[in-house]
Design a protein that fits this description.
4-stranded antiparallel sheet; mainly beta; single chain; 51 residues; Rubrerythrin, domain 2
Length: 51
């Protein structure tokens, strides 16, 4: 069984799910946070991993 799973990235300002990514849960235990462009806010905002 693979440890890489699909995760959702949610904008911290408007709370909308904009991106999907994969993450290896064995190597990265904490929640992922990346700076991405939000289409709804129309600017670069931090996006956090959701359940």
């Amino acid at each position: 069984m693979s440890q890489e799973t699909l995760i959702k990235l949610e904008c911290t300002e408007c709370k909308r799910v904009n991106y999907f990514s994969t993450k290896n849960k064995k190597t990265i235990k904490s929640r992922l946070e990346l700076k991405k462009h939000c289409l709804h806010c129309k600017k670069h905002t931090p996006h956090k991993e959701t359940k």
